[in-house]
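User: Can you predict the 3D structure of Na+/H+ antiporter subunit D? Sequence below.
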Amino acid sequence: MTDLMTGLRVPDLVPLPVLLPLLGAALTLAFRRSPRLQRGVSIAVLAAVVAVAGVLVWQTDVGGPQVLWLGAWQEPLGISLVADRLSALMLLVSSIVTLLVLVFAIGQGRAESEEEGESETPLTIFHPTYLVLAAGVSNAFLAGDLFNLFVGFEILLFSSYVLLTVGGAAARIHAGTTYVVVSLLSSALFLVGIAAVYAATGTVNLAQLSVRIGHLSPAVALVLQLCLLTAFAIKAAIFPMSAWLPDSYPTAPAPVTAVFAGLLTKVGVYAIIRVQTLLFPDSPLQGLLMWAALLTMVVGILGAVSQSGLKRILSFTLVSHIGYMVFGIALATPAGTAGAIFYVAHHITIQTALFLITGLVERLAGTTSLDRLGGLAVASPVLATLFFVSAMNLSGIPPLSGFLAKVGLLDAGIAVGTPLAWLLVVGGIVTSLLTLYALAKVWSQAFWRTLADAPRSPTPAAGGGGGGGGDGGVAVLVEAPARTLPRTMLAATAAMTAVGLLITVVAGPLYAFTQRAAADLTSRAPYVTSVLPEEVRR
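Assistant: Sure. Here are the predicted structure tokens for Na+/H+ antiporter subunit D:
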């Protein structure tokens, strides 16, 4: 088997997660008059990316980081794409998410095309834009230098602008404007940081920076670190730079919101993991990161508890659980880093599943406002089951992966043993309990209570409120639901929920994999020696 994989020249597979979606985007644009061909190309491309990512996960685990230099420039002047255990795992999870969300979007598009007067997602532009988004995410994970990481961010961001405002509704344009302004600000700050790094070190290659930054004065290194961390913290929605997220995500179409919630903030978290471990391993900002993690967890979950709309509740829990990932990063230990990586993989799948479920709730009931919902468990037992499983997983109920991820982080915090680490442990437990409370409230009001107990709206549900995208609306779930649930959308949501459960089943091997990834990140040697020739490392 090893000989077979070696014969395939696995490093040549490294650019495929970027190139295939870009090629697919061009083809789907050329096939804009044939929705069937667009769907076929998009599914085939993303399925191929899943297969490539699976091979890279296996190869990086048995053979170390896979590096491909692009162009004819002498190393390390060219552009390098690097797949190590961390980036390969992120590629695999993100490609599975993008594939399943695409299937959901296709089901939604078919259903809308069959309903007169409904056209929420113009599919002609959706498929190429969505594939460009997938290419940007992959490029960010594989980037071997800061500028290519910036390019990856910009690719996924400009495609996300289009997806966020697709349909042209006033609420989406307003939310898109906020998102664009915040994203441009973080991108400008990131670009300034890249310029400062190059001015101080003469390179933007991550492996080479890991050698040269150690020779800078502590003050200069601290300024560079603050600049990069601030840019990534905005993208990752870390408190106090997280206020934009709950106002931006809930207005988008369900599949767009799901892929945003699952992936976009995690790219920012990935960038923080990469920069902190590779460039600033002995950071003086660990205390600041710990406080940011604690405040992100607590403020985010308090925001979720205070909401009455399902989309906004999930948006605030998304912010809150970013704090768990920063918790692991801030500990700056192999155990903390392993816990953060495992938590990222877990959270991508669960948060995506919950937003897909929310899209189904909105389609079935015509609203996502808890004040106007009731009886969903009777109307759709399958949907109720999917929500219950995902909600318990996010809340950290044993033996699900959310529980295992939190236990790993709490153990790492206890092992550090400082007062601030203990405070984070307590904050993590409180956040988990409040997450359970917030999602139990959703279950109680939207799914469990009877129709007789649910508040009634002055207008009937049938035909109302399905395309608004917000948490408001005037529809309620009455005896005649607003819509049925298309099988394709339900199947994609069930598959996404099943992926979250699969992480529980393979938690042992997966956690061991994240521990090996964390060991590589902490030592830095596997990454640096794989990327740089020996004469450059001296």
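Strands lie at 66-70, 79-83. The CA atoms of residues 182 and 231 lie 10 Å apart.
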